[in-house]
Amino acid sequence: MSLVEEVLREQQGKAGPFSDKDIGTTMLAPGYRVDLRNPQGRELDKFIKANQVSDWSILTWREVGKPYQVNMMSRDRKAWEKEHQQEMPLKTSWAYFNRHFHQWFVKDVPEELQKTRQEVKTYLSRFKVKQVVQALGDVMRLSLWNYVHRVEDAIWDPRGKRALFEGLDVQKPRILFLGAAEGYEAMQLYAMYPGGEVVLVDYDEFCKTDRFGQFPETYPFLGTNPATGSPKVWYKHEMNIEYLVEDIRNLPFGKEFDIVISVGLLEHFPDEYKPMVLEWHRQFLKPGGYALMTTPRDQVRSRLFYMIMADVMNHTYRELMTIRQMGLYVYEGGFNILRHGFIKAHNGIVAQPR
Ligand SMILES: C[S@@+](CC[C@H](N)C(=O)[O-])C[C@H]1O[C@@H](n2cnc3c(N)ncnc32)[C@H](O)[C@@H]1O
């Protein structure tokens, strides 16, 4: 174990292991990357390859084609459907997804990799072929997770997200996160635009209790010091966050939020439901407010990821899109697109109702 990992491990549970003097650094913790590198302005721009389309009104579906559908479902979903002789209900599929996905965020990845590699050797020496194959699959998935989430930081992607969220004209915003899961992006937004309020909404209670509840108190978000305007490290416990376990369709709010955000929501709805999902983003926005949306990119490596991690990720309907496809949905849903581009694993859009 590296010195950094030992220090981090020692500090687990104590809030705030990083301070402003760590800004500019990055390091690998056992379960994730700490990234306090702080490019700004043009430098930050390189984390979002933006603006492929100058006029959305002349783009057509003929030109951009339809999204790629991920068809390989998890074993759990197939087993459930066989047992119940019906399609898995949507809410159940989210419950499965959240429980599976969460298990990967709480892993000590280097330790598990070492343990699983040892298992391969042990089973090999005993000629236990079935167990060798199983353990090799585990090594492959762990190695992929290590690369994608921990080394490349392509899931949380703080620098890409900051590049996408930069430059919003808001002060102490009220932020609504639809389908919030662990709430990562709203915490990043709060750090960049502090002093307001975050409302996280997810109808799966496990997201409040475990995914958000167990999100590491020691994870540092790079944001702004409202007193000085200079960079500052923020932690979850310093933020004003409320978690609502509720269906998005039953929310008690009017047009009262400065920012409405979703991350990985639109692609879970076939075309006939997408206008409804886009309406969810509009209906809670104040005049002049911003809708922020991201969806997974359609690229070979993403298709491979969802194939190899099918048992973890694929419990629900899912599409992979290009930024032009995503933008066309958002434009046709009645938004002006202010900023669009792709970050590591996702497309990102900043939009305002037309
Ligand atoms: C794919 S997840 C979002 C991706 C997230 N960033 C993650 O890491 O898992 C979508 C979330 O939306 C929630 N969700 C889906 N439909 C919902 C609805 N109608 N009301 C409230 N939450 C919903 C699901 O429970 C799930 O946690």
From TrEMBL:
Gene3D superfamilies: Vaccinia Virus protein VP39. This is Class I SAM-dependent methyltransferase.
